Amino acid sequence: MSVPTDRKFLGRLSLPERRYLTDALRTETVGGVLLLLAAVAALVWANSPLGDSYESVQDFHIGPAALGLDLSIQHWAADGLLAIFFFVAGIELKRELVAGELRDPKAAALPVVAALCGMAAPALVYTLVNVVGDGSTAGWAVPTATDIAFALAVLAVIGTSLPSALRAFLLTLAVVDDLFAILIIAIFFTSDLNFAALGGAVAGLAVFWLLLRKGVRGWYVYVPLALVIWGLMYNSGVHATIAGVAMGLMLRCTTRDGEEHSPGEHIEHLVRPLSAGLAVPLFALFSAGVSVTGGAIHDVFTQPVTLGVVLGLVVGKAIGIFGGTWLAARFTRAELNPDLAWPDVFAVATLAGIGFTVSLLIGELAFAGDEALTDEVKAAVLIGSLIAAVLASVLLKLRVRKYQALVSAEERDEDEDGIPDIYEQDNPEYHLRMAEIYERKAAEHRKRAQLAGASRDGADRPA
Fold it and tell me: Structural domain of residue 453, as residue ranges?
């Protein structure tokens, strides 16, 4: 019987993976700050003397009624703009499966188990609270999601930069989260099906896939087709964001000879700023505006539905991700990176309790028709995410010096060849270049010392 070999958990990423991660998270961080500002603006607007105008804008209907698309602004934000967000999520998932952290089943097992436990535990906590408190179990899926953009915004605000291995772990958790959130929306929040519209959407997706296979290019072909597919998917009864995911998964995310980037990566690079910088912040602006009063906050911690959401995000996420990670590492004999410690994993697990965008969306779907309860659930998502952010900030700040040293080592490039030195340490040419650099610096130092000595001799010599 073979004994499993030890593997490194949260070890150094490959250079291409690190570069992709850096570019992707840079955009997500900017988008996360905009998301944070949009959420604050929504709360201020909804709780100001102009609160009635906020509701009026939310409920304002626009769109062609003949096509079944006479929707409110809030509805357009949730079903329309978030389709862009899920399109990018689909590309991310495809890339992770074929070229990223999830392509190797053995390497993927640990973050996938962690993500699954990080979704199951919050759902269990929510259900337990509502069964004991005689509340509604309809919102079990609300605390299961992680908002990567909001989490990165928190890191930007507190001034903490995580080592690339921890950032990759957080991103992988979020990607797997998105996958299962998509499945939850598709399975549990699909209304009565219109099979004609659904058949049209499937036919449109088949045409989309065929055009990609034939190598047809041009946004003027794909954008109108994508809008038709989205409209048909919306009218089918399946949540319209599923159309975005499906199209994202169809893109090729592997490179061929002569290609620097795959088509999927190229399109993701173009669309991600639109998703992170416009679509998601606008969704937050028209969804996060809830009444925040002393009574409303009291209700969040006393009603079983809202208390279940808060505890699911704060307690369920942290325990689920950390416990799942520890157990998976224990039974796969994966060794933790010696530069990191298990408290680092717990801090990231706590940070993953920030469930904003998708949690708000699922809250709207779970309690559709009950406007008062929907607003209470939204308030619970905001408060739970805030508590998770504060706790994670404290835990991460305790290790900030260690992170700064690790990030500095990852980014050091003394030979200025565009490749971090940590990736060249086994290369003989690197050591030759470094020897030349050190010799040049030493010669410059000796020259400056001689000039300084000559200057002192001249100053000491009598006139």
Answer: 427-460
